[in-house]
Design goal:
Blueprint: H1 2-25, H2 32-49, E1 52-53, E2 71-73, E3 83-84, H3 87-94, E4 99-105, E5 108-115, E6 118-124, E7 130-132, H4 135-138, E8 145-147, E9 154-161, H5 164-172, H6 184-192, H7 197-202, E10 206-214, H8 222-231, E11 239-242, H9 247-257, E12 265-272, H10 275-280, E13 291-295, E14 301-312, E15 317-329, E16 332-338, H11 342-347, E17 355-361, E18 365-371, E19 392-396, E20 399-403, H12 410-420, H13 433-441, H14 458-462, H15 469-482, E21 484-485, H16 487-493, H17 501-510, H18 515-519, H19 523-527, H20 534-545, H21 547-559, E22 561-562, E23 578-581, H22 591-600, E24 604-605, E25 615-617, H23 626-634, E26 638-639, H24 641-648
Helix pairs in contact: 1-2, 12-13, 16-17, 17-22
Length: 650
């Protein structure tokens, strides 16, 4: 069954590629007759096996946009695993029993329910008690079976993950370095929770089953359950049967394989193979007693700090980056790590020539663990390393950061272009910071409007390193698509001080999407818009009054087509309510997405808690942050994301 499933997966991928080339690129990689032959063969395999994979051209799941993700309580709490970093502790825990050792995949745990042989429900782990229903998204995972040859109810648990390769490809399409995803798990978590499953489908999420919650009761051992799942068409986590005499060696085997493993893994899981024995052990308040997680020890390497680079960003923030003698970490050569801010440079007492230890956080992000020397001789730059302007030190709640105040700094220019083309702004694919730098250096791009006139430099761009005819054509097509945009996207792209996605939408809505009105707002008119204070209003007016900025906007108006259609959101579930958002979010990719949801439902957002605030959204209700304290002083309710989503549903 595993062989036929593998053939089916390869056939689905090939037929979908052939269809994509034919319909989207007006080309052919096989004839229609050959396509039909391969299609019929796939259909035969599906009928014989009873398995239909997600993405199969024989089914049409269809893309769907929903307004929210419903919540659902799990029949039994999904507990976390107790953990250790000591292989001997794992062997001691196993005792004289046999166990299964498998990857602990670093993604999002999902529970799938099949009834009458069809996938009927998919729910995230959530907080272990309540999860989010993501059925529409699960149906477009790359490898999930939509139909299985089993009519009884089956409930399967597994991990949704995105491969390192797909993670890197997606990040390559994001021009703004600050907007790139930090790791595959973050990308997967946001992807699985998308309200539009067409976005989910484009990101190639895969599902690997690791246990059966119910529905396979005729076996005694865990490994038999996994084998049954494979027969039903699921891809399962790789596992090895172990006992006390083999477990240490097997951990060693996995620790070697992880360096080249295509899926993100943050450790291993050991579970008793005997199902009844495991169940007899019960559970604690926090952990099941039948399984244990093994977390990789952070691989520490000693090296010598050679330099601190100071890298300016679009906003003027100058980020310190440590450069050190290359060391091999988790299978790759590493020679630099972000130090994040001036406070960390000082706390680590970094100095050139110091002996430091470095590691990869979650086996991905290089970090400095410790400074063994602590000479503290790294000077904080008095001038910007790019433009030479005098730098400014700022202190925000005890965290020191370095800034370049020069608005004409070339580094800011590249970062500003990167912001302009980003996914939340003009959304021009194919323009990384490196590409933008080449275009600027070669004199092809001096202002944003030039990005829509690149056909003037066809031969030069085609000849650029890393480019070619196809890349050039794709870039032009992306720019052409982006030239049809909305007033709020245009406003957000310009880099007006204090204006982000949510504020741009609020201002556009207040002006009924009329760009001319948005561009010519007075400070008095702006302050009448909820959420816009004096500082933001004055900065806004000054931006458009600046002759250089005005010329830039004039040039953009000549090359862009703005959709100024307007639909009022009055009567929405949040109509008339004002929110402040703080802290980390879990159900949305970022706080900007929360703001978008509020505005779309008729609400408003502001940056600070005042007497006009109706709700403060903070998942840490007990936090002693300034915003929480202010809300409590004013008697303003503090709600979690779950509370907010319930309000959103009306």
């Amino acid at each position: 069954m595993e062989d036929i499933r593998k053939l089916m997966e390869e056939r689905v991928a090939f037929l979908n590629k052939a269809a994509r080339v034919y319909y989207q690129e007006s080309n052919e990689i096989i004839s229609n007759q050959e396509y039909d032959k391969l299609y019929d063969e796939l259909l035969k395999w599906e009928e014989e096996s009873g398995i239909v994979l997600a993405g199969s051209p024989t089914v049409n799941v269809g893309y769907q946009v929903i307004s929210n993700l419903p919540k659902e309580k799990h029949p039994l709490p999904m507990l976390s695993l107790d953990k250790t970093k000591d292989p001997e502790a794992l062997r001691s825990w196993l005792g004289d029993k046999e166990g299964l050792l498998s990857w602990k995949l670093d993604g999002l745990t999902i529970v799938l329910t099949y009834e009458e042989g069809k996938l009927t429900k998919a729910v995230t782990r959530g907080d272990g008690v309540t999860g989010e229903v993501i059925t529409n998204n699960a149906k477009v995972f790359d490898n999930i079976p939509l139909t299985i040859p089993k009519k009884d109810t089956l409930v399967v648990r597994g991990e949704a993950v995105i491969t390192y390769e797909d993670f890197e490809k997606i990040n390559e399409t994001i021009g703004d370095a600050d907007a790139k995803y930090k790791n595959p798990r973050n990308l997967c978590a946001g992807t699985v929770r998308q309200l539009n499953n067409e976005i989910t489908a484009s990101r190639h999420v895969r599902f690997y089953a690791f246990s059966v919650a119910s529905g396979i009761d005729d076996v005694k051992f865990r490994h038999e359950q996994l084998e049954k799942l494979a027969e039903l068409g699921f891809e399962t986590v790789d596992f090895a049967k172990v006992d006390a005499s083999t477990i240490i060696d097997e951990i060693g085997n996995y620790s070697v394989k992880v360096a080249d493993y295509v899926l993100p893994s943050d450790g291993l899981v050991l579970i008793y193979d005997d199902i009844e024995y495991g169940r007899s052990l019960g559970r604690t308040a926090k952990f099941p007693r039948d399984s244990m997680a093994f977390k990789w020890r952070d691989e520490l390497k000693e090296t010598t700090l050679r330099e601190i680079l100071w890298s300016p960003s679009r906003t003027g923030l100058i980020n310190p980056i440590a450069i050190f003698d290359a060391v091999d970490l988790e299978g790759t050569s590493v020679s630099r790590a972000s130090v994040h801010n001036v406070s960390i440079v000082k706390n680590l007492k970094l100095g050139i020539g110091d002996t430091i230890t470095v590691y990869k956080a979650n086996m991905i992000i290089p970090q400095i663990a410790e400074n063994m020397t602590g000479s503290g001789n790294v000077p904080i730059p008095q001038v910007c390393p790019v433009c030479g302007a005098a730098t400014q030190l700022k202190n925000d709640n005890g965290v020191e950061t370095l800034h370049c105040p020069n608005v004409e700094c070339p580094a800011k220019k590249i970062k500003s272009f990167s912001h302009f083309v980003g996914r939340n702004t003009m959304n021009i694919d194919g323009l990384s910071e490196a590409t933008l730098e080449k275009l600027v250096d070669e004199g092809m791009v001096a202002e944003p409007a030039d990005l829509f006139k690149l056909d003037r430099y066809e031969e030069k761009i085609v000849a650029m390193e890393g480019f070619g005819r196809k890349s050039y054509e794709n870039l032009l097509a992306s720019a052409k698509a982006a030239s049809n945009t909305t007033p709020d996207r245009l406003l957000n792209s310009l880099g007006v001080p204090g204006i982000g996605t949510a504020n741009a939408r609020v201002i556009a809505q207040a002006c009924e999407n009329k760009w001319a009105k948005m561009r010519n707002l007075t400070a008095e008119e702006l302050t009448l818009i909820d959420g816009v204070g004096d500082v933001l209003a004055n900065g806004y007016v000054e931006f458009f009054a600046n002759a250089k900025n005005a010329a830039m906007v004039d040039a953009l108006e000549e090359v862009l087509t703005l959709d100024e259609s307007f639909e009022t959101s009055e009567g929405g579930s949040l109509d008339g309510l004002t929110f402040v958002i703080t802290g980390k979010v879990h159900h949305f990719d970022n706080r900007d997405q929360v703001k978008e949801a509020i505005v779309a439902a008729g609400g408003k957002t502001t940056g600070s808690v005042t007497s006009k605030t109706d709700y403060l959204i903070n998942n840490d209700i007990t936090s002693t942050s300034g915003k929480n304290k202010k809300a409590k002083e004013l008697g303003i309710p503090i709600i979690t994301e779950d509370d907010f989503l319930a309000m959103l549903e009306g």
